Amino acid sequence: MSAPSNPATGPYIDPRVTVLPRTVQLTALHTIMRDKETSRNDFIFYSNRLIRLLIEAGLCLLPFEDKAVTTPTGTHFAGKEFSAKLAGVSIMRAGESMEGPLRDVCKMVRIGKILIQRDESSPSKEAKLFYCKLPVDIHERHVILLDPMIATGGSAIKAIEVLRQHGVKEENIIFLNIISCPEGISNVLTACPLVKIVTTWVDDSLNNHKYILPGLGDFGDRYFGTE
Ligand code: PRP
Ligand code: URA
């Protein structure tokens, strides 16, 4: 996969990957999130703002149909209407932080949960599955998969495997994430070539402990206050 540099959207160009435009606003939000001095309160507040932007971008990849309406002026507006069944699925724990903003935008959306944790004692940080509860008709739905970080991609790959086992079509999965890196994106797309990824930022690399650089540290610990 080629990765030509593009200062507007970051370094990662692949038709399956949407990177939010690198506006000054987005950069300012990232500056707060990544600062190690940022308080937990601000970390939560600004991650909610970033997640909201991410969700609005992700919804653009869902199917819409034409819909014409009449305005109060008696004239027509040729519009669009969302036309599919949707579910959100969070990869716990950190993905739970994205459920609230998803509910703010998609009224009464069904939410499934998959608990996957990296084994921090293994050199490859292998992702382990502990729990899964999904809407019974998940196989009929488009799935917004939620996790703020893609490092090795192992957690996302495991979650997509679980969704596939429950009958979800890979092409109906949109994976939303705040910070990714080339290695993780490449691993996810190799294992799950039909999935679409939407990310707010593609970072440079992983360190020896498979943490994203420059990254923001451990998202779950900073969000839930377990540092
Ligand atoms: C973090 C993060 C992702 C995963 C990314 O979760 O939220 O799920 O690591 O790493 P990977 O791409 O290498 O799998 P973690 O397992 O630390 O658990 P947490 O959500 O409880 O913080
Ligand atoms: N999980 C995180 O929260 N941060 C990383 O950099 C890697 C995995």
UniProtKB/TrEMBL annotation:
Pathway info: Pyrimidine metabolism; UMP biosynthesis via salvage pathway; UMP from uracil: step 1/1
Enzyme class: transferase
Cofactors named for this entry: Mg(2+)
CDD domains: PRTases_typeI (cd06223)
Annotated transmembrane regions: none
Domain Phosphoribosyltransferase residue range list: 22-226
Lineage top rank: taxon: Eukaryota
GO molecular function: GTP binding; uracil phosphoribosyltransferase activity
Keyword Phosphoprotein: no
GO BP terms: pyrimidine-containing compound salvage
SUPFAM superfamilies from the UniProt entry: PRTase-like
Keyword annotations of the record: Allosteric enzyme, Glycosyltransferase, GTP-binding, Nucleotide-binding, Transferase
Matching InterPro entries: PRTase-like, PRTase_dom
Keyword Nucleotide-binding: yes
E.C. number(s) listed in UniProt: 2.4.2.9
One Pfam family matching this protein: UPRTase
Family: Belongs to the UPRTase family.
Annotated protein name in UniProt: uracil phosphoribosyltransferase
